[in-house]
Amino acid sequence: MKLHLSQKNDFRENFDQKRREMTENITTISAFPPPPPFYKLYVHYNANTAATTGTGGSSSSNNSAVPSPAMPPVAQSSMSGGGSGGTVSPMLPPPPLLPAPLPPPLPPQQGSTYVQFGQNYATTDVLPPLGEETPQLYPAGDIEPIKELKKLNRSILFNYLQLLETLIENPSTYKTKVDDISLLFINFHHLLNSYRPHQARETLISIMTEQCNQKKLNIEKLNNSLEQAKQILRETLNAIIQKPIDQQPTINNVNQTNNNINNNNPFSPPPLSISSHLPGSTTNLHLQSSSSTNQQQQQQQQQQQQQQDGCNPNWVSNYLNLLSEIPRV
Amino acid sequence: MDLLTQLQDKLDHLFLVFGTCIGVLQRDAPPSSFSEVMNNQPPQLTQEQLTNADNWNSQTKHMALQVIETTKLIESIIESLPGFQRTENEQYQRLKALNHESKLLQQQLQDKENENDLFVDQSPKQVNPLTTNQST
């Protein structure tokens, strides 16, 4: 059905009106809730809005835009580059203008107060005194706390018995006795609270003592482990040096022992390839004669899995020197 | 739980026991008989009344026992409190000394660890010639 021209105009007007209403609605209704107000603590909010709206232009405006001092230098350089007339590379998009957050405020000084969740708190934690209406029953200054606590405990029990007698004989005068018992309890609690800092310090002392002991133990263990490792290596290398050349394993000996080992242990490693010729080093290996045949056999069993091809004994002595040179604390 | 907190809890419990005992006494105590008060004659009670009196006596004894036990427990906790031998200044000096010792030990531990790391790093480099074919 074809629409008449007037109908078309009416339809267009209605459509425009509805679009205007929608845009008006969009400006008044936000899709997302506003951010919490404490974000203003970290941003020069007023300076940024002045930079972006007071000058009447966007960030791409040329000379009139003044970068805010909180803006990062990259953003500032991009803005200045835009202002100088086309020095910004057309290939790269300008970086987003994210204002740098403010540094956090300094912590409150000792002795001052601070506000936390709407309440004032003091930086120094001091137990408040009992007050004028609540007299202190135990003496001030240096006291024996255990003795005073026992006295208060017995006074509480005695006053309770007196309260029972008062209730029997003269019930109308119960209030004074109840006030006395309350006073005793308040003093007891105040005395206990006054020893909380002492308890905290003692707890800290015990924790730190335990930590020191643990560190000493760890140092001792590390020392022992290192010494054991060095000793094992030293013994092994000494055994290598002390073994005469004719008793060192050859291909035939090694293969035979490896076959024996393989026959006995299916999980043994594959045989190593060892050449029987040790060029230029035969005389150097006769450093010391072995002490006994048993010792030599034990050393030979230990070294059957080592490769001794091209063994240069100089590195052995270098290594032993290194072991002795490692600084000991 | 530390001893001071236990002591505070027991103290609060004692206060509660005091209030409970007095409340029960006021609410549930049986009335006295006139013959007992006026003529000092023992009351003539039925069997049921005798049973109730026995129950009441045991209840009062139980309440008194609670008070005494709580008080004794408080006293035992007070006696087991750790010694207050050190003054505040002595504690602070001890803390400073411990802090200094802890830093020294930490440095020693770090040095020992570095020494171990050096040993672990250098050992394979020196032992590797044994495992490779080298012609000298």
Describe the protein's topology.
The complex is a heterodimer of chains A (329) and B (136).
Chain A: H1 5-28, H2 45-54, H3 73-83, E1 113-116, E2 119-122, H4 145-169, H5 174-194, H6 196-242, H7 251-264, H8 282-285, H9 293-302, H10 313-325
Chain B: H1 3-28, H2 34-38, H3 47-79, H4 88-131
Describe the protein.
Chain A: One of its GO terms (biological process) is regulation of transcription by RNA polymerase II. Chain A: InterPro entries: Med7/Med21-like (IPR037212), Mediatior_Med7 (IPR009244), Mediatior_Med7_sf (IPR044888). Chain A: Belongs to the Mediator complex subunit 7 family. The complex is a heterodimer of chains A (329) and B (136). Chain A is mainly alpha-helical and 329 residues long. In chain A, 54% of the residues lie in helices and 2% in strands. Chain A has helices at 5-28, 45-54, 73-83, 145-169, 174-194, 196-242, 251-264, 282-285, 293-302, 313-325; strands spanning 113-116, 119-122. In chain A, strands 1-2 form a two-stranded antiparallel ribbon. Chain B is 79% helix and 0% strand. Chain B has four helices and no strands. In chain B, helix 1 (3-28) runs antiparallel to helix 3 (47-79). Chain B is elongated, with a radius of gyration of 37 Å. The chains are: A mainly alpha (329), B mainly alpha (136).
Q: Can you tag this structure with a few keywords?
A:
heterodimer; A: 329 residues; mainly alpha; two-stranded antiparallel ribbon; 10 helices; 2 strands; 54% helix; flat; B: 136 residues; 2 domains; 4 helices; 79% helix
> How widely separated are the two ends of chain B?
72 Å
Averaged pLDDT of chain B: 85
Major sheet attributes of chain B: none
Distance between the termini of chain A: 101 Å
Radius of gyration of chain A: 45 Å
Strand content of chain A: under 5%
* Apparent shape of chain B: elongated
What low-confidence regions of chain B span 5 or more consecutive residues with pLDDT below 50?
Answer: none
For this entry, what is the oligomeric state of its chains?
heterodimer
Work out the count of structural domains of chain B: 2
Number of helices of chain A: 10
Shape of chain A: flat
Number of strands of chain A: 2
* Helix-strand topology string of chain B: HHHH
What proportion of the residues of chain B form beta strands (DSSP E)?
A: under 5%
Instruction: Please give the most extensive interface between any two protein chains, plus how many residues each contributes.
Output: A-B, 62 and 53 residues
- Outline the low-pLDDT stretches of chain A: 50-89, 271-291, 307-312
The ordered H/E elements of chain A are HHHEEHHHHHHH
Number of strands of chain B: 0
Q: Share of helix among residues of chain A?
A: 40-55%
**What proportion of the residues of chain B is helical, as a percent range?**
over 70%
